[in-house]
């Protein structure tokens, strides 16, 4: 019997960010392993013209929840969507809902955040800092609360090279930042943002670090823990391999490489690709929830959920495996053949961006215009280049994260829990994982049918022929122009032609002699 699964039985659990990538995998695992839990409250906002109910319905009817429906047929009754916007005061939760949450919640998993790297500081502070503070305030009024688990990121201190499982303070107190966001106007905030974030690359990592400080400062009598995952990727094993449904982190670049948009990327092939599968993060999160509630550690423990120090993989190996998988299982309707390389300095990056990204986009848009269609490739390419520039910081450096607390927790689990809530990244086979990841991107994110693979391969062959034809035509045009303008080129051309002629004559003469 799993002690962790047993622990969540009968519990009322509050999850923020349950409609997000990690939140959905967390909810799925909870329902699947503890179908007898009392209720999962999720804080949801209406979005993209969908009501709360429609959003929940869509999640529960997705492929991800197929197994849950077998073990927990009444899952619809156990999920309670509460209308909330974390950008608003008291999250704009109704009095009645708030009363229910305060009275019944046993465990909180706080996943909601803005994960955009370039969010305006005011918005990033509101969601990643102020909302965390408000949620802690709510938590302090919950009589039954056993644990509050805060999801942060391993990159909250990416300005350091070696990172321990401790909180590193930022120079300006979070309370001062929260206060100043209330009265400073946008222009001044824009001006002070670079000074505040200092040697961090973006507002995301900075505000996640402030969020951790808030958790530490507002802890009071709460039973808290912080989890710091690195780059969360598709699922490794559960509920099935390769599940992913958004383009964040490496996923978007995998799509761009498979569709042939991404041809070169400024990355250090030997830098550690600190990826961590979503199901490993979720298993650790649930184990931490159990440990924090049952063992009540004296201080707030921080758990690194990273792979680099236990089972490292690098970007070079990952890139090669991604491309190798696309050879076997290509994406449909690719723009160009999946073929990409790493560049390591500014000059080659600029060169390949011009030759491999911008030029084909301009030529394709020209073709679209000629055929009376709306050009779109240049715009798409510019967005890709902007995204690449945002991610570059993370693919040209390596970090070391200590994992003492995570390893300590592993040793406290029973063999059954180590199996059911496996977060031992040493067992992960990277090549197999990356192949499943790429397959998952095709199946679950792009919703492409595997039956279309022969047609996709045919399409790549056509692209290859167009490529050869295009290069040959380009060479002939260039050569023709050169001959027209340069005496040296004409001499070379005359020499080649007469050499070929002599060679053919000799060959013909010798074959006539043999007969
Ligand atoms: C030897 C040979 C080998 C050769 C091999 C060659 C290689 C071949 C294989 C390649 C794989 C190997 C290398 C992998 C490297 C991975 C590095 C990952 C590092 C991650 C570190 C994370 C550390 C921290 C982790 C955390 O703790 S947090 C989680 C991370 N947080 C994020 O990842 C948010 C990022 N995003 C944004 O910050 C915003 O997206 C923003 C970008 C500002 C745009 O912003 P904006 O321009 O306003 O536009 P959007 O509306 O947002 O998007 C506009 C359009 O871009 C699309 N798009 C959004 N994203 C991405 C994305 N990634 N990739 C691609 N597209 C994306 C979106 O679909 C939309 O397309 P559309 O729908 O228009 O068609
Ligand atoms: N993905 C990654 O690589 C990593 C993620 N993390 C952390 O994990 C956590 C989850 O990330 P992930 O699942 O990837 O992120 P997603 O962007 O997929 O999910 C974010 C969630 O937060 C919710 N949210 C955002 N704004 C509001 C709001 N104003 N009111 C209510 N809910 C809101 C979103 O709701 P809605 O659906 O309505 O937008 C969504 O459910 C975050 O704390 C992130 O920092 C840490 C390391 C890496």
UniProtKB/TrEMBL annotation:
Q: Where in the cell is it found?
A: Peroxisome membrane
* Its membrane topology: Single-pass membrane protein
Q: Which reaction does it catalyse?
A: a very long-chain fatty acyl-CoA + 2 NADPH + 2 H(+) = a very long-chain primary fatty alcohol + 2 NADP(+) + CoA; triacontanoyl-CoA + 2 NADPH + 2 H(+) = triacontan-1-ol + 2 NADP(+) + CoA; 22-methyltricosanoyl-CoA + 2 NADPH + 2 H(+) = 22-methyltricosan-1-ol + 2 NADP(+) + CoA; octacosanoyl-CoA + 2 NADPH + 2 H(+) = octacosan-1-ol + 2 NADP(+) + CoA
Which domain of life does this protein belong to? Eukaryota
Q: What is its main location?
A: membrane
Q: Which residues form the Thioester reductase (TE) domain?
A: 15-284
* A GO molecular-function descriptor: alcohol-forming very long-chain fatty acyl-CoA reductase activity
Entry's Pfam families? Answer: NAD_binding_4, Sterile
EC number(s) on file: 1.2.1.84
Please give the GO cellular component terms listed in this UniProt entry. peroxisomal membrane
Q: Which InterPro entries match?
A: FAR, FAR_C, FAR_NAD-bd, NAD(P)-bd_dom_sf
A biological process (GO) of this protein is: long-chain fatty-acyl-CoA metabolic process
The residues covered by the Fatty acyl-CoA reductase C-terminal domain are: 357-448
Q: Which residues form a coiled coil?
A: none
Annotated family = Belongs to the fatty acyl-CoA reductase family.
Q: What does this protein do?
A: Catalyzes the reduction of fatty acyl-CoA to fatty alcohols.
Protein's name according to its UniProt entry: Fatty acyl-CoA reductase
The organism's lineage is: Eukaryota, Metazoa, Chordata, Craniata, Vertebrata
Per UniProt, what is the name of the gene that codes for the protein in this document? FAR2
């Amino acid at each position: 019997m799993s002690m962790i699964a047993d622990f969540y039985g009968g519990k009322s659990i509050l999850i923020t960010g349950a409609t997000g990538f990690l939140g959905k995998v967390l909810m799925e695992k909870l329902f699947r392993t503890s179908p007898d839990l009392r209720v999962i409250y999720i804080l949801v906002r209406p979005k993209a013209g969908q009501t709360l109910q429609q959003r929940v319905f869509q999640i529960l009817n997705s492929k991800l929840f197929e197994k849950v429906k077998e073990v927990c047929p009444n899952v619809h009754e156990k999920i309670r969507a509460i209308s909330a916007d974390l950008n608003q005061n008291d999250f704009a939760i109704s009095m009645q809902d708030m009363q229910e949450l305060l009275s019944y919640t046993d465990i909180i998993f706080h996943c909601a955040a803005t994960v955009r790297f370039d969010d305006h500081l005011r918005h990033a502070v509101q969601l990643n800092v102020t909302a965390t503070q408000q949620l802690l305030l709510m938590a302090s009024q919950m009589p039954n609360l056993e644990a509050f688990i805060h999801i942060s990121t391993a990159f909250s201190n990416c300005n350091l090279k070696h990172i321990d499982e401790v909180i590193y303070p930022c120079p300006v107190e979070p309370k001062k930042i929260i206060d100043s966001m209330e009265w400073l106007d946008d222009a001044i905030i824009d001006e002070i943002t670079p000074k505040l974030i200092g040697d961090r690359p973006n507002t995301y990592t900075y505000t996640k670090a402030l969020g951790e400080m808030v958790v530490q400062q507002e802890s009071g009598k709460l039973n808290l823990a912080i989890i710091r995952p690195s780059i969360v990727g598709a699922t490794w094993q559960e509920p099935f391999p390769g599940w992913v449904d958004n383009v964040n982190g490496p996923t978007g670049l995998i799509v761009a490489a498979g569709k042939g948009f991404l041809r070169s990327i400024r990355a250090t092939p030997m830098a550690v690709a600190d990826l961590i599968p979503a199901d490993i993060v979720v298993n650790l999160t649930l184990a931490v929830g159990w440990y924090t509630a049952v063992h009540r550690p004296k201080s707030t423990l921080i758990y690194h959920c990273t792979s680099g120090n236990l089972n490292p993989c690098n970007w070079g190996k990952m890139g090669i495996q991604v491309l190798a998988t696309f050879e076997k299982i290509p994406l449909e309707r690719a723009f160009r053949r999946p073929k990409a390389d790493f560049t390591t300095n500014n000059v080659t990056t600029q060169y390949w961006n011009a030759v491999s990204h911008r030029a084909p986009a301009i030529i394709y848009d020209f073709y679209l215009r000629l055929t009376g269609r709306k050009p779109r490739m240049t715009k798409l390419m510019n967005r890709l280049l902007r995204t690449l520039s945002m991610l570059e910081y993370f693919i040209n450096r390596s970090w070391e994260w200590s994992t003492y607390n995570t390893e300590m927790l592993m040793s406290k689990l029973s063999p059954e829990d180590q199996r059911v809530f496996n977060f031992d990244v040493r067992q992960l086979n990277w090549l197999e994982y990356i192949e499943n990841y790429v397959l998952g991107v095709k199946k679950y994110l792009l919703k492409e049918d595997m039956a279309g693979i022969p047609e996709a391969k045919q399409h790549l062959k056509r692209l290859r022929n167009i490529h050869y034809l295009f290069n040959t035509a380009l060479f002939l045009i260039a050569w023709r122009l050169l001959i027209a303008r340069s005496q040296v080129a004409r001499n070379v051309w005359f020499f080649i032609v007469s050499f070929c002629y002599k060679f053919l004559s000799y060959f013909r003469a010798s074959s006539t002699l043999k007969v």
